[in-house]
Amino acid sequence: QVQLVESGGGLVQAGDSLRLSCAASGRTFNTYIMGWFRQAPGKEREFVAAIARSVLSTYYADSVKGRFTISRDNAKNTLYLQMNSLKPEDTAVYYCAANPRGGGAKVVGMYDYWGQGTQGTVSS
Questions:
Q1: 15-24: per-residue pLDDT in tens?
Q2: Helix (H, G, I), strand (E, B), or coil: what is residue 62?
Q3: Cα–Cα distance list, 97 to 8, 11, 88 (Å)
Q4: Is the dihedral of CA 107, 122, 81, 21 positive or negative?
Q5: On the chain, which terminus has fewer CB atoms closer than 10 Å, C or N?
Q6: Residue 112: left (phi > 0), alpha (psi -120 to 50), or beta?
Q7: How far is CA 118 from CA 7, 32, 40, 80, 99, in A?
């Protein structure tokens, strides 16, 4: 059973940065596609970023491209999301997730394992 625990959320002002972390346990971390998703009040959970096993293949939602950076440290079983130039519309609960399949990096239904979420709030 894979367990994922997010941390690093908080309350910041527009233009500030947050760095989210996700600690993974229970399976071989480096065999999974890892992703970040977010859910804002009244909205569906949406894809933010993903990173493949190779760590050289990354994917981003258009809304965060150029501002957010996903990375993974397979030796430490940890996933990161560096969020810069934050905007109020980035306010959401952020979830890390693990996808044991060979594809579907941007598809929420392909992820079998989820963390509890961490709240990121951006004020104007």
A1: 999 999 999 9
A2: coil
A3: 16, 22, 23
A4: negative
A5: N
A6: alpha
A7: 6, 21, 12, 13, 19
